[in-house]
Specification:
heterodimer, A: 304 residues, mainly alpha, MetI-like fold, 0% strand, B: 307 residues, 14 helices, flat
Amino acid sequence: MLRKKREQLEQAADIRLQSQIGEEERFWFLMRRMARENKTAVISFIFIVLMILAAILAPVLTVYEENDMDLMNRLSAPGGAHLLGTDEGGRDVLTRLLYGARVSLLIGVIPALLSLILGAVLGVIAGYRGGITDTIIMRIADVTLAFPSMLLAMVIMYALGGGLINVFLTLTLVNWASVARVVRSQTLQLKNSEFVEAARVMGVSNRKIMMRHILPNCLPTLLVLFTLNIPTSILTESSLSFLGLGVQPPNASWGLMINTGRQYLFTAPWLSFVPGIAIMLTVLAFNFLGNGLLDVLDPRQKKQ
Amino acid sequence: MLRTLARRALQALVVLIGVVLLIFVMLRIVPGNPIETMMGEHANAETIARMTKEMGLDQPLLTQFFRYIGSAFRGDFGTSYSLGKPVAQLIGNAFVNTLLLAVFAAVFAWIFGITCGIISAVKKNRLTDRIFMGVSLLGISLPVFMSAMFLQYIFAFKLHWLPISGTDSWTGFILPAIALGWNSAGQVAQITRTTLLETLQEDYIDTARAKGRGPTGVLLRHALRNAMLPVLTMMTIQFSGLLSGAVITETVFSINGVGRLMVQAISGRDIPLLQATALLATTVVILGNLLADSLYSVLDPRIRKEG
């Protein structure tokens, strides 16, 4: 599935280069078109904005503290004073869900951003320089992509140890390679275009050509990759946390909430199912938005 | 064509060597002496030194690497630190369960996925199409641990239809296979629907209709045969993915497979075991990709003639 999307992105870039409208103007035009034609993407976008707001406003939205224990009310079912029930320590699940959203969203966004930067820089260097630099970078990318991502994440987490920062690092190392591939193939096309040629003739340095002329032209593609990398990161982290290899307490990500709730699956199923559904909806929203972006950025896309 | 295949095989081999090297290096940058970790607090310095020497851990990294490759070719992957048995034997036993799970999951995914895809394409934009596509989308977006726990809760705990965990009988494989295969089923259903709809617009379909073929005949003999190529490629890649170890599914349903062995290796800081399981999983995936590429060029006459 990912492989198909990557190919689609590469071809889309190819066609976009042939259009003569200014990139920025064109971008907003496309965004308006997506807003008009793709209701699912719009709803997803609104959902994501609301969720970010909820995560930021968590202290205002709930009367409970994140780690407030209430041993008289352990494992109480959803409803009443605790809308989504309480966990094994009597902590309010809704409150923990809102605070967990902070961690899980960070885990989605930060590695997606870092892998985007790393992948874009390595990709543009590989494509622009060519030769041995290209071979080395792309072989490393091939090796990275050969791993099932969950396995690679597990091995890196093993080497680095748990904790939030290491989760960021691991997910970045898992996701950079696909970004590098796409950016490289776009760079190869841009390298020989007239404006890059012109810049070179005028004596602009190679570094400046890569950063000022080639990378900005990859931005729409990078935006799609960014949006689609967020749910991947959230999912991988929640799987890692599910195995106890991800975020460590007291940082409660949704994945960790599921992991601790799993012991009570048959007595208090809401402990796992509530954060699980939150993960599912978030992943779905980011995927819909990413696919919506991909569709408007790919002019050949026909409505089925 | 043979030349293309040979080139692809060579590329796969290079990647594989890179993978072995990467796993090897990553596991050795872990701080701390693995022997110390393995033996716990009770070991004295002398024993640790002797064990380190015995296992060749005092040698330079490159020597260790070539030694490892050499014995790996003879089927010797060392001895597990935490379980005290030969790694090859542990993996051999676990692989049977992983293979069974993968086959069950694949059979479910493909039958369910292809049927849904065909029906959806025929009933395009009708209610049936929407329901089937909704179910497959759910499969794609539901994290495996969620679908696994949902199924376990409903069908094992609430309804008592199937065992909660373990693989004492074949019924123990049903829920894990569905949990694991749902994602693949969703992907297969979507790609089958898309390619089938594209194929149905081709000229040769009109020709077949004009020649008086009934709708079922056109669908199965003409459209489906041509639409199956991308589906088949995807299925090959999926199967190698399933075979590489379903860490989460095996954990939820307590199946003693390769994925679970991997988790055990990590919690026991068991380098030989982790190394071998990771190597097995990656090799399976690389071979799967190679097979998918080759299959594509063998089955598609347009590509076949080019090479």
